[in-house]
Amino acid sequence: MTQSNHQLVRDFFTAIASGNLPDDLLTPDMTFWTVNSGTADKARFQGAMKLLASIFSGTLTYDIKSLTAEEDRVVAEVQSHGTLANGEAFNNAHMFLFRIRDGRVASGVEFMNQFVVRDTIAPLMQAAMAKVSS
């Protein structure tokens, strides 16, 4: 089970980098909490990942530095990087805690350098949301 949970988390990062987080990776009641955004349900989180991917020129990449799995939990130490649509380089460090149920992600918690997100990601996400709303 440990190896399958590791693979599930690897698949999760591949999916969010592309902006396409399929239902089959997530439980129907999945929730995700981030230090910047609080708690999101599955639909809101999937939408946010699609929006996040749209503000990058090319692909946002998640490099997994370590995965630790025990029982229904996986902890991932991750570095993210990419080039934003405005040409600016993006890099951040993250710690994730996943809860797995029935071979799917049931919940996630993400801690990252919130100042990097505030200064680089947030303005672009707000502008992208404004375009979607208009």
Overview of the molecule:
With 134 residues, the chain is of the alpha+beta class. The chain has a single domain (2-133), classed as Nuclear Transport Factor 2, Chain: A, CATH 3.10.450.50. It is 37% helix and 42% strand. The chain has three helices and six strands. A six-stranded mixed sheet has the order 2-1-6-5-4-3. Strand 1 (26-34) and strand 2 form a beta hairpin. The longest helix is centred in the C-terminal third of the chain and has 20 residues, at 114-133. It is globular.
Reconstruct the topology from this structure:
Blueprint: H1 2-18, E1 26-34, E2 38-41, H2 42-54, E3 61-70, E4 73-83, E5 89-101, E6 104-112, H3 114-133
Parallel strand pairs: 1-6
Antiparallel strand pairs: 1-2, 3-4, 4-5, 5-6
What distinguishing features does this structure have?
42% strand; alpha+beta; 134 residues; single chain
CATH class category? Alpha Beta
Strand arrangement, major sheet = 2-1-6-5-4-3
What is the H/E string?
HEEHEEEEH
Q: Which band does the percent of strand residues land in?
A: 35-45%
The CATH topology is given as Nuclear Transport Factor 2, Chain: A
Radius of gyration: 14 Å
**Major sheet, described briefly?**
6 strands, mixed
Mean pLDDT: 91
Supply the CATH architecture. Answer: Roll
Briefly say what this structure is:
With 134 residues, this protein is of the alpha+beta class.
